[in-house]
Structures are given as C-alpha cells and as structure tokens.
UniProtKB/TrEMBL annotation:
PANTHER family named in the record: CHLORIDE CHANNEL PROTEIN CLC FAMILY MEMBER, H(+)_CL(-) EXCHANGE TRANSPORTER 7
Location(s), subcellular: Membrane
Listed InterPro entries: CBS_dom_sf (IPR046342), Cl-channel/antiporter (IPR051280), Cl-channel_core (IPR014743), ClC (IPR001807)
Membrane topology: Multi-pass membrane protein
Top-level taxon: Eukaryota
Ranges annotated as spanning the membrane: 29-47, 129-151, 178-200, 212-236, 296-329, 380-397
UniProtKB keywords: CBS domain, Membrane, Repeat, Transmembrane, Transmembrane helix
Coiled coil: none
Organism whose genome encodes this protein: Octopus bimaculoides (California two-spotted octopus)
Entries under SUPFAM superfamilies matching the protein: CBS-domain pair (SSF54631), Clc chloride channel (SSF81340)
Protein's UniProt name: Uncharacterized protein
Record GO terms (molecular function): chloride transmembrane transporter activity
Main subcellular location: membrane
Amino acid sequence: PQAAGSGIPLIKAYLNGVRIPGLLRLRTLVAKAVGVILSLLGGLLCGKEGPMVHSGSIVAAGFGRGRLPFCGKDCLLFEELRSDHEVRDLVSGGAAAGVSAAFGAPVGGTLFSVEEAASFWSNELTWRVVFAAMTATFFTNLFLSAAVGHFTQLSSPGLVRFDIFQEDMAFDLVEFPIFVLMGVVGGLVGALFVIINYKLTVFRYRYIRRKWMMVAETALVAMATAGVGFVFIYTINDCTDIEPYDHHHAIVAKVFCKGDNQHNSLTSLFLTTPESTLKGLLHDKIGSYKVTTLLIFLVLYFLLSVWTYGLSISSGVFIPSLTIGAIWGRLLGYGCMEIFPHLKNNLGKYALLGAASQLGGIVRTTISIMVILVECTGDITLGLPLMMVLIISKWVGDFFSTGLYEMNIHVAGIPMLPSEPPPMFEDVKASDIMSKPVVCLPTICSVGKIVDLLKVETSCGFPVVEVENDSDSGSLETYGKLKGLILKSQLMVLLNFRIFAPDGAVQPRCLRSAKFRDFYSAQYKISDLNITASDRQCVMDITKYMAHNPFTVRISCSLPRLFRLFRGLGLRHLIIVNDKND
C-alpha cells in the first residue's frame, strides 16, 4: 500500500517524525519502480517525479539499514548510520537525489528537500544533501548518455528536460499585470484541483477499499483516458499542414486526415507521453494548435488528471500540473498577442509561466519549483516572473484550501507538526495540554510488568521515576521523582538479550550501543520475544540504559515556548515537571 501515489506526502510525514511501517522497505521500492513504469506505459496522465523522490529515499535509507547474509550471520553495512537521526538525514538526501535525477536539477532538488520534505535542517545536512543531489545528477547523466551511445559525452542530465528556448525570453514591464493575473489563475485552478481531489480521495477511502475495486477503478480510468482521446481526435477536424509547423517536439501523426501532408494536432497532445506533450506546448510555434483544440484539451486533461491522481498506482503530479498550466498559459499568450500586438510576445514564455503557476497552485511550493524550472530550461531571464507567479499562486490557493500533499496527509489521518505554533495560544500552559495519566516506570521493574506494558501501550518512551513503594507492589501508572527516560525500543532490546535477573541477583553485563542500533533497525515486535513465566518474575535495572538528562519544562511553560522547543530541537518526548521535579 505504501507504494501507491507519489510517495512525497508519506516521506514528508516520515521526516516530520512519523514512523510509517513498510515505507522504506525494499519491496516498496520494487513495487514503486515497476508500478510507475506500468502506469506510464498504460497511458495514464501521471509523472515519474514523485515516485523518484520516494525511490531515492528508500535507497538512501538502505545505506543505514543494509545487511548481507554471510556464513549464517548478518554482515552489517554502514553500522554507524543506523540511528534514527542518521537515517532521517539520509532520507532527506535521498529525496533531493530523486528530484535531481528526475529533472537534472541538483540545486532545485536540494531546495525541494529544504522547502517541502525535511522538517529539521542543519548546516552539516546541507553539504550532504548537495553532494547526494550532484552525485545523482552525474550518474543519471552518465547512464542516459551511455544509453544513446555517448558514454563519455554527458548530454542528458535528467530524465525530464524542457529543452532550451530558441526564442528571446525577455519581458516588458507592462507585462507584470499579466504575470499577476497568471498567478491568480494558477492559484484558483490549483485550489479547484485540490478540492475536487479531496472529495475523490474521501470517496475512495469510504467505498473503494477492496483490492478488486482498486484494480477496476484503475482500469476504468485507463480506458476512459484512451477512449476520450480517440473520440475527440475523430470528431474534431483539427488537421493542419505539416510543412509550416514542422518544429513539433511531440509526435506528428496523420490520423483521420485526408491530405498526405497534413497532421492532426490533437494527436500531438493525446497520443504521446506526458513529457512530450509538455515540450510541445512549451516550444511549438504559433499556429501549431487551434484555440478550440487547446480549450477542449484543457478541460479533458484537467478532469482526467484529477481523476488519475489518488489511484492505487505509483504516480506523480508534477508533469500533469505543469501541462495543465502550459495549456492555459499558451491560451493566455494568444490573448496577449491580440491585446498587445506591439509587444514581442512569445507563447513559450507564457506557457512556462503558466506551468509554474499551476504547479505552485497545486503543491504550494515556491523557491524549489522556480530553481528547478530555471535549471531545466537553462535560462535565468524569467527568474523574477517565475518567482512572482509562484508566490501569488500560493497565496491565492492557500485562501481556499491547503496544498495537495497536506491534503493527502490530513485525509490519511497522519499527525503532522506544523512549523509554527497555533496563534493566540500564549495563555495556554503546559499543564493544560500535557498527556495524562502518564505511564511511568520505576528504576527497578519486573519483566512481567514491562512485557504487559509494551503489549498495550503505544507510547515510544516512558519516564523513569523513583517511587517510595516497592516496584513490584505498585502500579506502573505512578508518579515520583524524575530520574530519566527510557525508549520502548530500548526495552525491546533489553528483553531480547535477556538483560534481567532474579530479584536480588547480579544484573547481566551492559550492552554495546551497536546492539541497540542493529536490533532497532530490524523492527521486531513484542510477540517475537520468547518470555517465559519464570522470566516474568525477574527484575530489570533500567538506570544503566535510560537517558539521565531528558528535556523537561515546568508546568507553567507557555504553549508557544513549549512548541518552539519541541519543534526546534526535533524532540520526540518532552517531560512536564513541577517545581519539585515530580
């Protein structure tokens, strides 16, 4: 199930601190890669960019969890990269590498990881992510160049390239109101896309839950996409001469045309890959497509793209969003040519700005999209207009709905920690929002109580307190002087290696930290541990393995201050204590 969709919302949630089972597993990578290939071969309106981000994250996480069987034992790879902190940094670099490999944009990939994926950033992480992005771009260029027979001549930096514009991309100051209008249109259409897809997603969660239903819906969308295209190509007479407009980047097909030197421009839009369609809209000359053709294609492409995104397949939304924007951007360019004939209008310029505005209006990302498009086109001339339309489209879209990825996270019920605390909560104190009752552990605790606790408790960490009564006679849900914090994963490791002894006996020797990292990465369950009835009577000394100085705040701490501390330090647990450290 984790291989469905683009994967970016789940990666974003993971980097925010949410643990999603199976998200970064090898089988998910295989399903993702095979799925996106079949989705594109099936003619669905989707892109490969989102799955590339997810795939890059899985490959990166594999460096911290890799193991090879050797002589009946596991030979651990990159043992020092097994902590949660290191794996999280690797996933951030993998997300950037995925974008870089897709678009050949290492700087844009790095900024995408900063702006959209990672929730926690550091200076050390910056150079790691940049290095991963540059390496991904280099090897993508190397392999693609070798595939076309030029192994030493690196000329294909990314899977998706928009090619260099041959026309002058300069703009006039009087066009700035047009750019503002394009930003507004991108935000409105993007919000409409998100709202319709939200209703579709909710409908799927409620009614399309069986596997055969998911397969049937995907087959229905594929047939509708192919059928609608052929019907409109047949019914609409859009045949033009090939000779004046031979600069097509999409295919040129003589479908349903009577003349030998004619082609149907609708085939250059429908019967080709999404990337080729986008290139044609960006680079084809004036007259390649009729206005009515583009209007019909805009409506059909928008509706089919909304329907396709959210299917139980591996798919992305980057290329469909860019294509939708390029269509209405090209239409707006026709209008500008009629209204301002004295200006040197370039349809490719308006198509590119429309594409950027539309993508920004759907995913609500600004800086990284601008840099990616600049790197893909190799032209910085439109840097300011691109930034303008992206910011305006985000503002307009946020007025009506959240971004597409945030919507997916919300519908999936995944908790996300925002970047800023909620407004007007200065008077709310820590005592008003803390979890209670708190499940605590004594410093010396019986194995049976620990096992019973791990079976029912979903918390990942437990405060360790010093209680006055005997640890075996009291309840686990007790309070006392705070001594430290023990993680659920650490308790699992201690139980697995039987770091306990009968009451009064000498406790076993301490474990190395590598044991904790290795065992935790394997993701064992409490049911996998063989704890006997005699083991349940033993006791465990937690003080040797707990964190002796966990982060704490007083009960009088305000919510904004507590939130910034928790968010800024990337904490998982924050213990609330009173003036007596209870």
